[in-house]
Automatic annotation (TrEMBL):
Pfam families: Peptidase_C14. Belongs to the peptidase C14B family. This is Peptidase C14 caspase domain-containing protein. Residues 60-152, 171-321 form the Peptidase C14 caspase domain.
Length: 361
């Protein structure tokens, strides 16, 4: 290929043969290194023809340090499940500043956390918090199973913490609630309330300052939760955060499933996705987008927790470890439904991004 450039419309074309040759060399080198790294990682993990099963120990030994980040997600249901919008949450006995409707996950989680906060003599574990949430949902005849996923394995028998003591820096949040007003029959009632209730909780209990909380609601008074505004809010909180800071992300709205369009990391062949207010024209925010912006982009030393109160949200951040509060699972495990080989492809892609920066310097 020969690149042709022109400084002005009436200037003669300049043929950049040397640049083309350099670009070709760089692309060949990058692809060769990518294949070498991927092959090596897959071999170390016991994939790619090796009959030995993948173990957590082998996975952790091989995982690059740059992906050993403190990123966790609490989701309201498994990928194949839907999440409920509750018309009256008065039974949850929340210090509710917002109204009577709310998401089932947000409302039950707040009920459990506020009750735990009042019992100073005891601290609930991750398992206890999620199982209590599940039991409350079950009593309300909701079938959804809450899940905890993470970049690193977590001992779910240890104390539940939304923000750990080690996060001594600035605490920032992006909170999104979309009721889809006027979009019958898809209109929801409780998403604004979810955000306002959760905002009060993180300010009162975890010391978040209002100036560090970005709220997006389709109520006409806040930032509109459009595709562009959500993406920009996520990028901004990543750019502003550094070692020692804490990030809290809360999404309450519709979630959906779309055919996996490129990476192949989904065992069921579908991407999970968020539905912004303008999804009909701007499209959905896929799990691949969330992974690229939030997971790959998260600075070292930053603690991130994401609360996803929407349908099909079980693996919407593509984190490799999972704990399902189904009463059967007792510890966090590598997600058996994740395509680990494709996850390694994501790791390879991040390493290639780094290599590209180095070679261009």
């Amino acid at each position: 290929m020969v690149l042709i450039a022109s400084a002005r419309s009436n200037s003669p074309p300049i043929v950049l043969r040397h640049q083309t040759s350099t670009m070709g060399f760089f692309n060949n080198l990058k692809n060769k290194v990518a294949n070498e790294i991927k092959g090596s990682l897959l071999k170390e993990l016991g994939l790619g023809g090796d009959p030995e099963p993948l173990t957590q120990e082998k996975f952790e030994e091989t995982k690059p340090d740059e992906l050993r980040k403190d990123i966790r997600m609490i989701s309201g249901c498994a990928d194949h499940q839907t999440s409920a919008d509750v018309s009256n949450v008065s039974s949850f006995q929340l210090p509710d500043p917002a109204g009577m409707a709310g998401g089932a996950l947000t409302s039950t989680l707040l009920k459990v956390l506020y009750a735990d906060e009042r019992k100073l003599e005891e601290d609930l574990s991750f398992t206890e918090v999620l199982m209590q949430v599940r039991n409350h949902l079950k009593k309300g005849r909701y079938s959804q199973i809450p899940q905890l996923s993470s970049m690193n394995p977590i001992d779910v028998g240890t104390k539940f913490d939304l923000v750990p003591d080690t996060a001594t820096g600035t605490r920032r949040a992006v909170m999104i609630g979309i009721n889809y007003v006027g979009d019958s029959p898809g209109e929801l009632k409780g998403c604004w309330n979810d955000v306002l209730n959760m905002k009060k909780y993180i300010m009162d209990v975890h010391g978040f300052d209002e100036e560090n909380i970005t709220v997006l609601l389709d109520d006409g008074d806040h930032i509109e939760p459009t595709y562009a505004n959500i993406i920009n809010a996520y990028k901004k909180i990543i750019e502003e955060s550094s070692d020692g800071d804490a990030i809290f992300l809360h999404y309450s709205g519709h979630g959906t499933k779309l055919r996996d369009d490129d990476r192949g990391e989904e065992a069921d062949g579908y991407d999970e996705a968020l539905c912004p207010r303008d999804f009909a024209t701007a499209g959905m925010i896929r799990d691949d987008d969330l992974y690229d912006i939030l997971v790959k982009g998260c600075p070292d030393g930053v603690h991130m927790v994401s609360l996803m109160d929407c349908c099909h949200s079980g693996t919407i951040m593509d984190l490799p470890y999972i704990f399902r509060a189904d009463g059967e699972q007792t510890e966090m495990i590598l997600d058996p439904d994740m395509n680990i080989e494709a996850f390694i492809q994501q790791i390879t892609g991040k390493l290639m991004d780094f290599l590209e920066k180095v070679l261009k310097q």
